[in-house]
Structure formats: structure tokens, C-alpha cells
């Protein structure tokens, strides 16, 4: 574990947010902005000390906030100053353990991830000073008088927080800046002033600072999407499993995996009762946290009477792909004493691959009997199981 102290800045006025109050108190979904930020550090076991820099006039409001939305670690309050830099200095003045790095973080950046905190901490132990930053994606112009210059974008990084330093270095940098009346827009710039190197750790474009009302909208939808499992930092993998059973009965076709298999009986159900496709659909819906096919295609709805389960699966697959997921792989088992499945396995595999527009190699279909045991062994019904792995590359 690479322990660190976190100083969270919340003493600003949030003027650009135009909310008429400090933005740290604004609700994003179910909790105030600053609580979202504090939670990340609270839940990081590497964070040893948590300091919250507040506006002295908001102390009781902040105390109330933490009573209503508690965190598990002890939070040390300290009064900030007129400028961000003054607030950081106030935070530095109350740090207890000066042997571990100090992380300075905007309370207004709630989407920092534990993974990035750890990367930053490891780098700070090695290099003494580091910051999160992302390559600039817009072309940046510099206007001096009436002259416009275009900066070389390949050298430009947008600085984020946390910015992290050995205690002695950042204290010295702040003290020196204060003596000269120098004010920078971040803490790394104060260290740069001392001609010391600051390492860049690539941050995330999701680690935005909530500055304007538009940022607040983005933050709200980001959080609600994240809760629904629609977005996440980095490539995201999700697994789902499915299980389904249908009774065998006379006078029905036996459709398994979209292929009609010659047999004296068929599967009973409201739709075409394709036990394997239903199982796969359930596994896919399970993976994205969307319930099951009963929720999407109720068996009380006449629209799905004798429905082609291939179409139902494609509908489910549209939901999956609209969320940005791709199939990693799926593994399925058909549990049937009869009919004999082996001659149809390859055909079923190719059919499912074409329904989902994936490669057959991503799909595995197996079949087993239950050695004449149970309802499947007595040929009263057929069961199927599936496990799917989905991958989301949209947020890498
Ligand atoms: N005197 C200050 C000014 C800013 N901050 C904190 O520094 C972070 C980044 O600053 P910014 O986004 O500019 O916040 P505000 O100063 O609150 O916003 P504005 O400039 O729009 O008033 C915020 O978490 C803010 O609360 C602080 O602790 N003390
Ligand atoms: C520190 C910072 O968040 C890095 O991007 C930024 O410079 C703070 O600027 P602000 O004007 O105080 O929001």
C-alpha cells in the first residue's frame, strides 16, 4: 500500500456555476457534489488522512452535510482562504504525517477513480511530484493583442487533480510562492517554478471539474448512466448467466437455437419456446442489469404468441449493442435426454452467430443428458444454460 494524505478543496464560491451558492452543496442524483468526491477517498484504503478545506462561513452547513451523508473516515475540517492557493496552504498547514505524499484535489472533481489515485500514488513515491493530465483534444489558440497563434497540440496537456507531492516539496513551493505574491492556477505550477520536475500520469476525460451549469448536467447523466451500468471508466466487462426450461409436448415443433430438430415432441410455451435462445437472451439481459425476457416480452402479451425467439433475441441484442457492449464469448449447455443434439450443434452455433452478427468462434454450444435422471432424464422437458461475457470499449 502506498499511503497518502488527501486535501480536498471545497472553500470556493462556485460563481461560474451560477447557482447562487457554493456548488459543493449541489445535489447530484442522491448526494451533494462534495460527498461524491469525499466518498472516493473514503473508500480508498491507501488514503490515510482526509482533510476538507471549507469556507469558514459554511462550517456548520458542511458539518450538517456530513451528518446527513456520513463517510467512514474521520474528516478534518480547516478554513480555506480567498484564493484556491490560499486554501491549499491552509490544508497543508494541518497535515499530520509529513512522511507520506499529499494529494491536492478539487472537491469539484467527483469522478476521480481509485485506480488513478493508486497510479498517482505509486508515481509520487518514485518521483516526488506528479499530476493527472489528459492530452488536449481541441486545437488551442493563443491570442496576444490582435495576433492569433496556434499552439502545437502534441505538446499540450490539460491539468487535472489530484496533484500529488512529497510534503516538504509542496510546502516549500507554496511558501516560496506566497513570499513572492505569486498565484498559479494549480499546485504543480508552483513546483515547476522551483525548477523541479513534475511527472504526468494520464488521467481520464471523465475526471471533469464541475465549473459551469453544463458540467452539472453532464455529471448528473454520467452518474445515472453509471448506476445503470451504461458507462464506466476503462474497458468494462460484464457477465450474465441464463437458465430456462420448457416442457416437451406432442403437436409442437422442437426448435432449439433457432433450428427445428426432427423429434416426436416439441417445446411448449407462449412463444416458439426456443429454450436455448431464451436462455441466451436472459444471460445478455442479466449482464447489462436489465432483468429478464419476461420483463421485456411478457407471456401475457398476445403480440408474443408463437413469436420467433430469434427476433426476440435480436431485440435484446440491439439493447446490448446500443449500450456499447460487444460479445466477448458465450458458453451454452442444452440439457436434453432426447433428441440427440450432436448433429445440430454446429448449425445452431452458426445460426446464433448470424443472429448476433458475431463470429461463430465466440460461441460454444454443448449438450448433455442427465443420465435419465430428473425431468429432463424422463424426457418431460428440456433445459438450457448460458454464460455470456460482454465487453464495453466505449469508455476506454
Ligand atoms: N478560495 C478557494 C477557491 C476554490 N477552492 C476550491 O478549489 C476547487 C477548484 O476551484 P473552482 O472550480 O474554481 O471552484 P470555485 O472557486 O468554487 O468556482 P468559481 O471560480 O466559479 O467561483 C473547488 O473545489 C473549490 O471549492 C477553494 O477551496 N478555495
Ligand atoms: C487545479 C485545476 O483544477 C487544474 O485544472 C484548475 O487549474 C483549477 O482552476 P480554477 O479556476 O480554480 O477552477
TrEMBL record:
Record-linked Pfam families: IspD, YgbB
Q: State the reactions this protein catalyses.
A: 2-C-methyl-D-erythritol 4-phosphate + CTP + H(+) = 4-CDP-2-C-methyl-D-erythritol + diphosphate; 4-CDP-2-C-methyl-D-erythritol 2-phosphate = 2-C-methyl-D-erythritol 2,4-cyclic diphosphate + CMP
Q: Does the keyword 4Fe-4S apply?
A: no
Q: Does the keyword Lyase apply?
A: yes
Provide the cofactor list for this protein. Answer: a divalent metal cation
Q: Which GO terms describe its molecular function?
A: 2-C-methyl-D-erythritol 2,4-cyclodiphosphate synthase activity; 2-C-methyl-D-erythritol 4-phosphate cytidylyltransferase activity; metal ion binding
Where does this protein hold 4-CDP-2-C-methyl-D-erythritol 2-phosphate?
244-246, 270-271, 292-294, 297-301, 336-342, 368-371, 375, 378
Q: Which pathway, metabolic or otherwise, does it act in?
A: Isoprenoid biosynthesis; isopentenyl diphosphate biosynthesis via DXP pathway; isopentenyl diphosphate from 1-deoxy-D-xylulose 5-phosphate: step 4/6; Isoprenoid biosynthesis; isopentenyl diphosphate biosynthesis via DXP pathway; isopentenyl diphosphate from 1-deoxy-D-xylulose 5-phosphate: step 2/6
Where does the 2-C-methyl-D-erythritol 2,4-cyclodiphosphate synthase domain start and stop, copy by copy? 237-390
Where does the record place the site Positions MEP for the nucleophilic attack? 153, 209
Q: Where is this region: 2-C-methyl-D-erythritol 2,4-cyclodiphosphate synthase?
A: 238-396
Where is a divalent metal cation bound in this sequence?
Answer: 244, 246, 278
The Enzyme Commission number assigned here is 2.7.7.60, 4.6.1.12
GO BP annotations listed? isopentenyl diphosphate biosynthetic process, methylerythritol 4-phosphate pathway; terpenoid biosynthetic process
Q: Which domain of life is it from?
A: Bacteria
Entry keywords, A to Z: Isoprene biosynthesis, Lyase, Metal-binding, Multifunctional enzyme, Nucleotidyltransferase, Transferase
Q: Return the InterPro entries for the record.
A: IspD, IspD/F, IspD/TarI, MECDP_synthase, MECDP_synthase_CS, MECDP_synthase_sf, Nucleotide-diphossugar_trans
**Positions of the UniProt region annotated as 2-C-methyl-D-erythritol 4-phosphate cytidylyltransferase:** 1-237
Q: Where is this site: Transition state stabilizer?
A: 16, 23, 270, 369
User: What task does this protein carry out?
Assistant: Bifunctional enzyme that catalyzes the formation of 4-diphosphocytidyl-2-C-methyl-D-erythritol from CTP and 2-C-methyl-D-erythritol 4-phosphate (MEP) (IspD), and catalyzes the conversion of 4-diphosphocytidyl-2-C-methyl-D-erythritol 2-phosphate (CDP-ME2P) to 2-C-methyl-D-erythritol 2,4-cyclodiphosphate (ME-CPP) with a corresponding release of cytidine 5-monophosphate (CMP) (IspF).
Under PANTHER family, the record lists: 2-C-METHYL-D-ERYTHRITOL 2,4-CYCLODIPHOSPHATE SYNTHASE, CHLOROPLASTIC
**Similarity section:** Belongs to the IspF family. In the C-terminal section; belongs to the IspF family.
**Database matches in HAMAP family:** IspD (MF_00108), IspDF (MF_01520), IspF (MF_00107)
- Can you say what this protein is called? Bifunctional enzyme IspD/IspF
| Organism expressing this protein natively | Halobacillus karajensis
